[in-house]
Design brief:
6-stranded antiparallel β-sheet; 4 helices; about 35% strand
Length: about 200
C-alpha cells in the first residue's frame, strides 16, 4: 500500500483505495471495511455490507454482501488486468419470487443494470446466481404453504476504468444490494419494492 519510494507519487492501489473510501451510500446500507484476503494478490481491500428491515430491525435482515478489490501491479493473465473486483450479495426473497423460474436470469440482470447505471466498465465479467428455498413441514409448516428463500449473486470482473474511478464499481455493488433487498431507487424513498413482477420477464 506504499507509494513509490521517494517519488511522492501515489500507487494505483492507493488511488483506488482513496476513491473507495470517499464513497457515500444511501442510508439504508451499513458498509464497513473488513479483513481482506492476504494470499490472493499483493494488495487487497474488502468491504462488508448489510441492509436491515426498518420495520423489524432485530430480525429483519434484508440483504448482506461483501466486496473485495484485488491488485497486482504485474497483472494476472486470468484477470486481463491489474485489478479484480470480487463481489457477493445475498438477500431474502418473498415466496412468489423465490419460486419464479426466471429468478436467476433476472438476478444477473440486476448486476448488469447496476454497472451500467454507474458507468462502471468491466472486462472478464463472470459469476453465478443461486436460489435457496425452504419449505416447512409438520410443526414448522406454514398454514398458507409459503416458501421462504434467498438469492445469492456472486460475481467478479476487471475494472476497465482508471484506478480513481473504482468508486463507480463499488457504487454498482451497493445498488445491486439495494435492488436485491427490494428497495426503491435512491432518492425516491425507503419503501420496499414488489419485485415479483420484475421476475416474470427476463431482460
Amino acid at each position: 500500500m506504499s507509494s513509490a519510494v521517494g517519488s511522492g507519487i501515489q500507487s494505483d492501489f492507493e488511488i483506488a483505495l482513496s476513491s473507495l473510501r470517499q464513497q457515500r451510500y444511501r442510508p439504508e446500507l451499513s458498509i464497513d471495511e473488513a479483513p481482506a484476503p492476504q494470499r490472493l494478490a499483493p494488495h487487497a481491500v474488502a468491504l462488508s455490507a448489510e441492509i436491515l428491515d426498518s420495520s423489524d430491525p432485530e430480525d429483519g435482515e434484508l440483504a448482506t454482501g461483501r466486496l473485495v478489490v484485488l491488485h497486482d501491479p504485474d497483472g494476472v493473465d486470468s484477470w486481463e488486468g491489474t485489478f479484480r473486483v470480487v463481489t457477493f450479495a445475498r438477500a431474502a426473497l418473498e415466496s412468489d419470487l423465490a419460486t419464479d423460474p426466471f429468478l436467476p436470469t433476472v438476478g444477473w440482470s440486476w448486476l448488469g443494470d447496476a454497472l451500467a447505471a454507474h458507468g462502471a466498465h468491466t472486462g472478464a465479467l463472470g459469476g453465478t446466481v443461486t436460489r435457496v428455498t425452504s419449505e416447512g413441514f409438520g410443526s414448522l409448516a406454514d398454514p398458507a404453504g409459503m416458501v421462504t428463500g434467498q438469492i445469492e449473486i456472486r460475481a467478479s470482473w476487471t475494472p476497465r476504468d482508471s484506478p480513481g474511478d473504482l468508486g463507480n464499481h463499488v457504487q454498482a455493488w451497493a445498488s445491486l444490494l439495494a435492488t436485491a433487498a427490494g428497495l426503491v431507487p435512491a432518492g425516491v424513498g425507503v419503501t420496499r419494492l414488489d419485485r415479483s413482477a420484475n421476475a416474470t420477464t427476463p431482460r
